[in-house]
Automatic annotation (TrEMBL):
Main location: other
Pfam family, one: FliE
Name of the gene: fliE
Name this polypeptide is given: Flagellar hook-basal body complex protein FliE
Coiled coil: none
Organism: Methylophilus medardicus
GO biological process: bacterial-type flagellum-dependent cell motility
The organism's taxonomic lineage, starting at the top: Bacteria, Pseudomonadati, Pseudomonadota, Betaproteobacteria, Nitrosomonadales
Compartments it resides in: Bacterial flagellum basal body
Keyword terms, alphabetized: Bacterial flagellum, Cell projection, Cilium, Flagellum
UniProt GO cellular component terms: bacterial-type flagellum basal body
Family: Belongs to the FliE family.
Sample GO molecular function, one term: cytoskeletal motor activity
Length: 121
């Protein structure tokens, strides 16, 4: 079956590769996020996550994805044989989706802040 010039088998293969990349554990390449968890007590089995640390780590990850996407695009445009067009397009889409998600989170935070400020005490 051919969907707009792209074989369905190739689409399925690409989706499988994306799923495999998304399931890689931290530290095995990709864009692993730094663990923002901070221990409050060494003897305590629970840990607390600082909101500001988690937010900063998330923003850093989105920034790194955009920088990597830009670098891959420039490398491809310069004729680097190690960079394929599909790598450039996938990286660009990942960066775009991450940015859109970040904007949505920001919008929700602003709305929550405005709702709190409009509450009568």
């Amino acid at each position: 079956m051919n969907a707009g010039g792209i074989d369905a088998q190739r689409i399925t293969s690409m989706l499988a590769q994306l799923r495999a990349a998304a399931q890689k554990p931290e530290g095995l390449g990709g864009n692993a996020i730094a663990n923002p968890v901070q221990k409050t007590n060494a003897a305590s089995p629970t840990s607390q996550v600082s909101f500001s640390d988690a937010l900063k780590a998330s923003l850093d990850q989105v920034n790194n994805m955009q920088l990597e996407s830009d670098k891959l695009g420039k490398d491809f445009a310069m004729g680097n044989d190690n960079v394929s067009l599909s790598d450039v397009m996938i990286s660009g889409q990942k960066a775009n989706i991450a940015f859109q998600a970040t904007v949505q989170v920001r919008n929700k935070l602003v709305t929550a802040y405005q709702d709190m400020m409009n509450m009568q005490v």
